Each structure stands twice: as structure tokens, then as C-alpha cells.
Amino acid sequence: MLVATWILGVIHWGSALVGLFAFVHALFQRSDAYSAADRRTKPIWSLITFGATLALALFWLQDAGFIFWVPAMAAVLVYLVDVRPRLNEVQRGKRNW
Questions:
Q1: Cβ neighbours for 48, distance < 8 A, ≥ 6 positions apart
Q2: CA 90 to CA 66: how far, in whole Å?
Q3: What pLDDT, in 10s, does the model give residues 3-18?
Q4: Going by fewer Cβ within 10 Å, which terminus of the chain is more open, N or C?
Q5: Entry pTM
Q6: How many angstroms separate the most distant Cα atoms in the chain?
Q7: Does residue 74 form part of some domain?
Q8: 29 near 42, Cβ under 8 Å?
Q9: 10, 18 in Cβ contact below 8 A?
């Protein structure tokens, strides 16, 4: 039981750090890059990633907070997998390897 609690703790705090990374990334991007990437505005994504980071830090996986943790993690992953690459592409240009 102790090992499972430790693993869940690592997942909990690791996900909060991922959310914090997404929030900080959203804050430091240019506002016009969001519209150029055809995504929601900077204030909206900053608010989404902030709220998701807060939920990831406050709610644990093993109790009733799981119902808030899952959508928060989904929001952070959407930002990191969909929005962040498009913002980087708009600001740096498409890379052809």
C-alpha cells in the first residue's frame, strides 16, 4: 500500500509541474501568435492552464477529487499537444527536417 501511495504522489506532483509548465508557457507567448495559430486568445488559454494547474495541485487521484483531476489534466495536455506546437510553428516558422 505504501508503494502505491508513493507512486500516486509522484504522479500527482508531476502532473502539477506539467500544468505549471503549460501555464508559464502560455503566459510568455505573444498575444498575436494565438490568433495567427487559429487558437483561442492568450487570456483564455492562460486562464485554462492556470485553473487546470490549480486543480492538479489541489485534487488527488485516489479520492473524489479525481473527477476534477482528469479534466484538468486533459486541458493541460490539449494545450501541450495541440496549442503549444502551433504557437511555436507560428513564431519560429515551420521546420523541414
A1: 40, 75, 79
A2: 35
A3: 988 998 899 999 999 9
A4: C
A5: 0.87
A6: 49
A7: yes
A8: yes
A9: no
Instruction: Say if 82 falls within a structural domain.
Output: yes
Range of the domain at 7: 2-90
Number of domains in the chain: 1
For residues 59 and 68, is the Cβ–Cβ distance under 8 A? yes
Give the pLDDT score at 96. 66
Structural domain includes residue 78 = yes
Q: What is the 3-state secondary structure (H, E, C) of 18-87?
A: HHHHHHHHHHCCCHHHHHHCCCCCHHHHHHHHHHHHHHHHHCCCCCCCHHHHHHHHHHHHHHHHHHHHHH
Q: Which three cell numbers stand for residue 44?
A: 483564455
Q: What angle do CA 7, 26, 59 make, to 5 degrees?
A: 30
pLDDT in tens, 35-60: 888 888 999 999 999 999 999 999 98
